[in-house]
Design brief:
mainly beta, six-stranded antiparallel β-sheet, 7 helices
């Protein structure tokens, strides 16, 4: 494990040619850009958590059946400050740094509650987001860093607050068929009334105005007030259908008082998250065209979720699928010490790991005052999910467990917001570190797997074949690394229908384990 997780990555600033074994489809042209933690120590200082590592962006470019690779560290202000000091000087999720300039920001909290979330980092290590024609490295903070998708150069930092009052924002937006981007964030104290905010960035088709960022046209869709002022919900993603936004206000919460005093008590930001297993989960359904919420209160038992899979509408129901956990032990598993133990100790440390479950909720929309109490209002025949109206008019929802042991879910995004059948993901069994790729058939509840001993694939990305009409007509792309020095890192190309290997492109340099990414077709790279 130690040779994979927590090891510093390297830059490959100029493209290198991969050695292709097999046949990469000639039609596959474009660039897959991936983001993830890649630098875990600076000088003699070291990060505590895998989610702290400084962003290392890498790209795989496909053309004429060949593959080239390059990588560069995101040159964020955090990266520059750390490198200049030759030590970690900016706090991250699991690593608090002392002395830290955030101390002055936190001190102001005690006098006028001006700003609970400080500008403590712009280390955008989670995903790549498109706004209009611009591409950004993103995490869950108010800063994003624009990058050049061709060269991976860092263009510069942008603050969401220049366009909308937000402390936090997700790194998992949605894109509609017109090219508009929808995202969601949190506005906490110091930015008006505490609320969750959904916003839209229109697709900018004007070449003459492209020098101006698409974010300048950002529009707020709606806002949702906190149900608890001091304990806002944590969220990593959200759902979207043709007409609705689905926000899961879960019982995994940010403790505001603990956050405000974290520096002085010597705890990191991760310790300010808490899971209340005795609380409930609220499901908010918001019309994304009008900004109005559905009046019915939908709720369920406590759960933890990070990734939504897909959502759609069917016969006056909103159906949404997400990956659920029974607890928050997943975060603890990603502390570097837990990830780099000897194999036996590593397995012992992960015995309490709560496996991820692909979970379906169904919310009936045609509820009225006359709706019968105490009966299941879900009329769809292909799910066991229920929604039972209570005496007070609220609706208690129980989910349908589709499949256990899948994370980092991806679909054919042409089917986003539509009824779909297949989800691809990283297969997670005895530990949170996936070593397989799986394709789950939601209709038959069966799955296929790709596996190679001692190999660790990244999140699988679906790219459709030209003119494809079938949902699984395309390829799956995943970068694969191994602690075995005899196995070169490679880009894996699978037939999305069968998960049979079409090709692998062996990379003649070191690559790192990443998190999420974005495929840019060749026609849109420039």
């Amino acid at each position: 494990m130690q040779t994979i997780f927590g090891k510093n990555g390297i830059e490959t600033p100029e493209p290198v040619q991969a050695v292709v074994r097999g046949c990469v489809p000639d039609w596959l042209e474009g660039t897959l850009i991936r983001n993830g933690p890649g630098l875990f120590s600076v000088g003699d200082s070291r990060y505590n958590h895998w989610f702290d590592g400084l962003s290392l962006i890498h790209s795989f470019t496909f053309k004429n059946g060949e593959v080239s690779y390059r990588s560069k560290f995101l040159k964020s202000d955090t990266y520059k400050r750390n490198v200049k000091a030759d030590r970690i000087v900016v706090s991250e999720f699991g690593t608090m740094v002392y002395p830290d300039p955030c101390k002055n920001i936190f001190s102001r909290f005690f006098t006028h509650l001006s700003n609970v979330i400080p500008d403590f980092t712009d280390n955008n290590l989670v995903n790549i987001i498109r706004y209009g024609k611009d591409f950004y490295a993103a995490s869950e903070i108010n800063y994003i860093n624009e990058i050049d998708p061709s060269t991976l150069e860092t263009i510069g930092r942008t603050n969401y607050r220049n366009h909308i009052a937000l402390n936090l924002a997700t790194a998992h937006p949605h894109y509609d068929k017109e090219g508009n981007t929808y995202n969601m964030g949190t506005a906490i104290m110091g930015l008006g009334k505490p609320k969750y905010v959904i916003f839209k960035v229109p697709h900018d088709t004007s070449d003459s105005e492209h020098k101006k960022p698409a974010l300048r046209k950002l529009q707020q869709v709606c806002s949702i007030p906190f149900r608890s002022l001091l304990f806002p919900s944590y969220f990593h993603s959200f759902g979207m259908t043709e007409n609705y936004i689905i926000f899961v206000e879960q019982a995994f919460k940010l403790d505001m008082v603990k956050l405000a005093t974290a520096y002085f008590r010597g705890v990191n930001w991760g310790n300010c998250l808490k899971f209340d297993k005795d609380d409930t989960t609220l499901f908010h359904v918001v019309n994304r065209h009008t900004g109005k919420s559905v009046s019915t209160q939908f709720y369920g038992a406590a759960l933890v979720t990070f990734h939504h899979i897909n959502a759609y509408e069917e016969h006056d129901h909103v159906v949404f699928d997400l990956i659920c956990y029974q607890d928050t032990n997943l975060y603890d598993m990603f502390y570097i010490d837990n990830m780099t133990q000897e194999t036996n100790k590593f397995i012992d440390a992960n015995k309490e790991f709560s496996p991820p479950v692909c979970t379906r909720f169904v919310l009936p929309l045609n509820i009225s005052k006359e709706s019968e109490r105490g009966v299941n209002l879900v009329t769809l025949k292909d799910t066991s999910a229920t929604a039972v109206i209570q005496e007070n008019g609220s609706v208690f929802c129980t989910p349908d467990a589709i499949f256990q042991g899948l994370e980092l879910p991806r679909i054919n995004y042409d089917f986003n917001t539509k009824k779909y059948r297949y989800v691809y993901g990283s297969r997670v069994e005895w530990s949170p570190h996936p070593n397989k790729i799986a394709k789950v058939d939601i209709e038959t509840r069966t799955h296929l797997e790709w596996f190679q001993e001692n190999c660790y694939p990244s999140e699988p990305v679906f790219v459709p074949s030209p003119g494809a009409t079938e949902e699984d007509d395309g390829v799956i792309l995943s970068s694969v690394i191994s602690p075995d020095p005899s196995i070169s890192p490679f880009m894996l190309v699978l037939n999305a229908r069968t998960l049979e290997e079409l090709a692998r492109a062996e990379i003649p340099t070191q690559i790192h384990m990443d998190l999420h990414g974005y495929f840019i077709p060749a026609s849109k790279t420039h």
